[in-house]
Amino acid sequence: MKPVFEYTKGMCRVDTNYCPGCTHGIALRLIMEVLDEMGRLGDTIAVAPIGCAVLAHQFMNVDGCEAAHGRAPAVASGIRRVHPDKTVLTYQGDGDLASIGMCEIMHAAARGEKFSTFFINNGIYGMTGGQMAPTTLIGQRSTTSQDGRTREQAGMPLKMCEILSGLDGTVYAERVALNSPAHVRAAKKAVRRAFELQDQRIGFTFVEFLSTCPTNWGLTPADAMKWVDEKVIPYYPLGVYKQPEEAK
Amino acid sequence: MSEKVLMKGNEAFAEAAIRGGCRFYFGYPITPQSEIPEYMSRELPKRGGTFLQAESELGAINAAYGAGAAGGNVFISSSSPGIALMQEGVSFLCSAEVPVVMLNVSRGGPGIGGIQPGQADYYQVTRGGGNGDYRVPVFAPSSIQEGVDLIYEAPVLADEWRNPIMLLADGMLGQMMEPVVLPEQRPFAESADIRAKKPWALKGYGDSDKNKAVVKSLRMQPDDLEAHVEKLFAKYREAEKALVRWESEGLEDADVVFVAFGTVARLTKEAIEILASQGVKAGLIRPISLWPFPYQAFDEISPKTKVVISTELSMGQMIEDVKVGVNGRYPVELIHRTGGIVPTSLEVAEKAREILAKI
Predict the structure, then answer these.
(1) How many contacts (CB atoms, under 8 Å) link A and B?
(2) pTM score of the predicted model
(3) Mean local confidence (pLDDT), A223-241
(4) Which ipTM did the prediction report?
(5) Pick from A63, A65, A78: which is nearest to B205 by CB?
(6) Residues of A in contact with B26 (CB under 8 A)
């Protein structure tokens, strides 16, 4: 009998704490599946900062640490100096990376830090209960933008793939989604590409996952997936924003 | 070895950290300690270490946390406002039990304050500016040689106690020059050493069946968090006994006992000589560890002592610990300057005589 589906050894055999319909679980599984396929589980160090991401080290079957809010890229920069031969990653949410941690991510990318950052963009602060994030869409309701975000009051949502791909230290930046089987397959390819380029030690690698937060969006899991297609992807177009010249 | 060299404090401290085995340095420029990142950027790479100029003090302390969690021996330095920014990280390091050696070359505050020497960070370093229940051992040298010796020892203590170790050297010590004897280079830890000596460190579990390493501070269950903090405090109680250090002189028959650390202890020793020439017997308690504070030193003070004087470059912060040590047995007074002004020994002696005259 040929197995058609298996648990990946990359994920610990524990239940995740994520809400039903949240795509954190898919993103984590893709990252860990790729590391398993590349034979890297014993040679990887992961950094999970505050937010729903902070739970990730409980599920990822690799050495890992927590980081203070926004600081994962600085922490990973320190880890990378001690272990130049390991695979190093950060797993960060949008409040963490694009708000409080903007300084750390920009400078890590600008330095061309040789680790990979996986960025969960669900347009909201999940763990604290649904406040406006730097990525919340115009018109989107949150507990701190109760009539919907306005440009006048909060400015426009930040497009991190576009911003980071403008830095010379970034060698790879791609935005993917997790709301359909085709998108999930494409996302896995992006994860693998990030790790392959990290192996070349030529610069900073970045994958942005357009993710869902049905609980704080006030939508059913199925409607949240549709909302990604209808509202999120039009503002945050999918695709490769930066890659090495030879790959084009 | 044992050849004396003339060095500026900041450069001697940096060299002592390298010789102590600190292979990783993360820093950000701030006066009066910028010679340290400059020295490290020049020296560490050619000696097999790593220098990184961080984007901020937040970046520096968090890179230090990452490197320390990965098993590296890390040294970082800053000055008062920069140390304030690092407090989030210090709290995190203590909770996650990650060893890092920190040096505060302190200046006047509050706010941006000034760039001249100050000791107004006493609360910051001994009480902790970060959140939660934690403690950081703090050592305050009063000469460049003592700073070199303490910094050389600090990575060993940090690893032994799995806790950050703080050195507090005021800007005077950072900026002045003195002859020092530098210790032998302690070898840098290699990957195999980290694997052998730090089973808790992040290094990849390789092909082994061992459990993955996790370095963390989040504990969502209150009983879990309480148990963790109780465990930390059992460690701190041991550290209070093992790490307390002080020097004292003339306590047996002193009319007045000064308590002073760092640069102030040096000029207070001169003030004691001036007072002696005027027929006033004065003694000194010089805390070397500010936490744990040497409360037991006060038990050696003579019953005939008339007053204990805390002498500080602040509005009086250590005086709170002095009062705990004195425990009501003697009047406690303060001689102080702040704002970056260092009093002369004559000034201290004169003020001490004024205080004695009123008692």
Answers:
(1) 128
(2) 0.97
(3) 98
(4) 0.96
(5) A63
(6) 78
